[in-house]
Amino acid sequence: MTLQHQMNVVRSVMRKLERFEERSPPLGVGNGVAAACTDKLRVLGEGLLDVLLYLGLDSTLLENISVAVDRPLCDKLFRWLCVGQHTRMQLGAATLLLRLCGTKPWWGHLLADTLVTLFSSNYSAVFPMDRWVFVDLQLMRRCMY
After folding, report:
1. Are residues 67 and 137 located together in one domain of the fold?
2. Are 47 and 64 members of one domain?
3. 99 and 41, same structural domain?
4. Do 91 and 133 share a domain, yes or no?
5. What is the pLDDT along the chain (145 residues), one digit of tens a residue?
6. What is the reported pTM?
7. One domain for residues 103 and 132
């Protein structure tokens, strides 16, 4: 998928959301997210993630964003996006977090701690273990080179 195509998809989604907003009655803040279709939110999230990955190609911008991401924030993003989402979001978020935090001294410890936590007998949440192991191994492999 070319970058131009990705930008066109994001623009199309934004236009659709703007048209929907014009036609729909005003909702309260809490009702807006609850009433939104999860597929549309997923596509919007994927589009935003693609834009962030595209903007991350600029090393200056990447460094500015990277300064704001500390270990607790990275841990929350990692668990929410890389463990709790579907495949495309997992891979995109993992790539973005690797670009942002891969050079930080705590990155390897974060991956190891997450691996230990997710596969401990005390962890009861359901997640796709085989897919997540693949993502984690890819991140570890990229950190080594």
Report:
1. yes
2. no
3. no
4. yes
5. 566 777 777 778 777 777 766 665 555 555 555 556 777 888 888 888 888 888 766 667 777 777 888 899 988 888 888 877 777 888 888 888 888 888 889 988 888 888 888 777 776 666 666 666 767 767 766 665 5
6. 0.62
7. yes
Place of tokens 């230990």: 116
- Overall size of the chain counted in residues: 145
Read out DSSP for 58-96? Answer: SHHHHHHHHHH--HHHHHHHIIIIIITS-HHHHHHHHHH
**Domain limits at 27?**
1-55
Query: Which of 10, 25, 55 is at the close of a domain?
Result: 55
- Classified as helix, coil or strand, 122 is coil
**Quick one: tokens of 127?**
């997640």
- CA distances to 13, 85, 115, 144 from 1, rounded to whole Å, are 16, 21, 31, 28
Q: Both 74 and 94 in a single domain?
A: yes
Number of domains in the chain: 2
CB 107 within 8 Å of CB 73: no
Q: What is the DSSP letter of 11?
A: H
Q: How many CA atoms lie within 13 A of 142 on its CB side?
A: 17
Q: Using an 8 Å Cβ cutoff, are 139 and 98 in contact?
A: yes
The answer on 46 and 67 residing in a single domain is: no
